[in-house]
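General statements about sequence and structure are easier to judge against a single worked case. When preparing material for the folding task, we compiled for one chain both its residues and its backbone structure tokens. The amino acid sequence and the backbone structure tokens for this protein are reproduced below:
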Amino acid sequence: MRRWWSLMLLISLRAIHSSATCPEDYVEDFLKTDDEPITGKQHTVALILRLTSQGKALGDQWLAVSCAAVLAIAHSNQRDGRVVPEFATQAGEATLNMTVFDSKSDQHGSLSAYREANRYHRISAIVGPARSASTTVLSELCAVDYIPLISYWASAPELSSQRHQYFSRSFPTDEDTARTALRVLQSFGWKYVSVIHTNDVYGIGYRQVMGLHNSEYDIEIHRSVSYEFGVVESINKAVQALASPTEANGQGNIFFIIGFDTDVEAIVDAAWELGIAGPGYAWIGSDGVTPNAISMASQPERLARRMSGFLTYQLSPVFSDGFKRLSDLWSTLTPADCANPFFETPARVFREPPPEIAAFAYDAAAAAALALRAVPADSTCMRVRALEALRASDFSGASARFRFTNGTGDRSAYDLEWLVYNWV
């Protein structure tokens, strides 16, 4: 009997779906809210931002990144083109409301934010989350619910698949980043590289791309180990495996970290204790290893000393005209410019240059805003039309010229630059 009931329900849902004028129409019956139906003049954008991890605040860098996303929505409403000139010139009557949530840097927090956003609002678009591991599950839900989602940091190649039809990103895929990393390693003359990576969709995807293309750059992956995000015991075990020599090549001395700033202290401490850091060893981190690693550390001065000479390879917008516009404006801002009901941005944040990731957060929110403004007010299928407008984006962003690759949701890497930083 239960099987017959399930089959009848499936047939019923398909019948509703096929009779709807737009695919998103039938979803609205299940996403009940107190809001009025979506129109071309009023939209609500959910910002799912990275503010905490494992119950701890991530500090000023991520407050600044989150502020940048809020600022872009405000600039769209004010028709303020000081960072993105198209805000002042593009036609469109739409006004954007925003609702802000903390992804908590994991899937559970991101899913909770998604539920809350859709419980109380009719969401036209979502900006965020940051991590690929948090984004993948939300992206699949957005494809079911026909809600465009654009992330500002999720780079896993898996998100380019057809299962993520409503996903876009302002940060390029690791299909581009990992291959460029191999080119950097080759330029240093390094032949054997050991890799330590998070056991999630980001770390696995980045490592897979390196494994597919390393021979093109005459590089051998000496050893590859994974660890669980945020689990010190798992990190210690992975670093211990790196320190163990192999029969073929002995112990490696060049290490590539595919991980996040929250795990860097544990990785570096374990490496020092095992004698595989310091003179005679080279460590290089992916774009997830940011200067925030030191400010978040339990012993920041010690970590800074131990990381002296470490390298970080990452995408950087600092030489773009858009980043200069954002930087020039940044020092003039006050906490009121990033006002929102969820978090406060302290004044000290604006006394430092904006973090580079802030440019990608600004552009993600700007792309969503410009897309919603581009949809005619009398359109049907508002979110479908918004996705079409989003994929057609081409504007002067805070990170560089902003456009996607061949109508997909992948940010074009053509206008972007990668840099190697030396931790000193």
Notes: The chain is about 40% helix and 15% strand. Residues 114 and 157 are 22 Å apart (CA to CA).
